[in-house]
Amino acid sequence: MNGQRSYVDGYPSLAAFIASDRDGTAIIFKRFNRLAARNLLFLQSEIAELQAQLDAFDTQDSDISNQETMQSLRNWNDYKARASTNPSRMNLVRQIRETLRDYREALLFESTLASIPPPGRKVLKAFRLNFFHGRPGDNGSFPILGGNSSALYDDADDLVALHAGEHRDRMTVFVQDNFSYLFKDRHLNRGLGDSSVLEYASESKIASFISYLSVVLAAMLLFGAILVLYNTKSNNLKLGLIALFTTIFAASVGLLTNAKRSEVFGSTAAYAAVLVVFVSGNLGS
Predict the structure, then answer these.
(1) Which residue in 210, 159, 146, 156 sits closest to 183, CA to CA?
(2) Membrane spanning segments where (predicted)?
(3) What is residue 132's three-state secondary structure?
(4) Hey, which bits of 150-205 come out as E strands?
(5) Which of 67, 98, 140, 254 fits a 20 to 30 Å CA distance from 73?
(6) Are 143 and 10 spatial neighbours (Cβ–Cβ below 8 Å)?
């Protein structure tokens, strides 16, 4: 392990592997979507039953229709005083309060969890290589955790990555999926040992590369288009080149970034306006 501490296989080694990722992309856990949906179904059915019981008490009160009963439905202190003679009423109120709180908290938790993206394909593949001590299904591979926990990471759609990374635009995802081997984190990889099939890629290095690449690409699309238009004499050809460069720019913004449609239209219009102004200005002529 080259001076790195080794951990007992099982929960200790899996926890150490998750914590060893400096970028936090290996913090992957199971959502339990089916179980969460079942819990919400139970809670809403329980509340429906409680609501029916409360409606039944209201129906009884409307049938009695005396001054004391009507006053208790308008004043909380009177309601408590009247309910003291019938503990089931106050027990129902407390049960509604607790169950409704649990139900709404569960709804908020599920809403928050639904907004967290699943792990990336490359990250999940690396995680499973570690979890199964190799490629799942190969001879000699076996899960770190036993029993029912051995199938925790089988369903990719039921997993959540608690830290998806700060830079998740399309260009970054493309580089991470296809060229991550160019951005290895040597410090973390030394801790894996020479026999490990896993290698860490630095997310910060990839983010820096994408930033430089974006600047270069933007400059090329702008000054490259101006240079080509400056050396073009035919007006019809200039119009065709403006259309071509504008299309390339729009495709670059739309495919390589997370820009919204309104942002794509706005930036493309600004880019086209710059080229048109250049062609129609003194420098262009």
Answers:
(1) 210
(2) 209-230, 237-258, 264-284
(3) coil
(4) 159-161
(5) 98
(6) no
CB atoms closer than 10 angstroms to residue 269: 12
Q: What burial letters (b/e) apply to 16-28, b meaning 16+ CB within 10 Å?
A: ebbeebebebbbb
Per-residue pLDDT of the chain (285 residues; tens, 9 = 90+): 444 567 888 999 899 888 887 777 788 999 999 999 999 999 999 999 999 998 988 887 776 667 667 777 777 777 777 777 778 888 898 899 999 999 999 999 999 988 888 887 878 888 898 899 888 878 888 999 999 999 999 998 999 988 765 556 777 777 877 777 777 766 555 544 444 555 667 777 877 888 888 888 888 888 888 888 888 888 888 888 899 999 999 988 887 777 888 888 999 999 888 888 888 765 545
Task: Determine the Cα–Cα distance for residues 44 and 105; give it in Å rounded to an integer.
Answer: 12
